[in-house]
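Risk register update: the risk of archive-format incompatibility is retired. Evidence:
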Amino acid sequence: MQHVNNVVYLRFLQEVAISHWDSLAPREIRDTVKWVVRKHEIEYFYPARLHDCVELVTWVSSAGGVSSERCYEIRLNGKVIVRARTLWIAVDPVTQKPLRISDAVKQLFQLA
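Archived output:
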């Protein structure tokens, strides 16, 4: 059908989330907090097609306990074509167990 596949949108969301985290968090925090996905919700409004130049916008809307909700918009020519949310769980990279989100991490997301 010559439109972008859902899997590609999901990859876009993950890539922009990782880039955002890497740009905000200093190395010492990135080394002690890793993130795993618990749930994705994606709403598709309009398709993007091959060679379209899309804009990705992301922000963290909440963080508490061990979970954080990240929101996204994918825009084409200023029009929102996809809205999505991901529930991320903070994980200790050594024990691989859920990790309480610190105030320092909340401050990175401007939530504290």
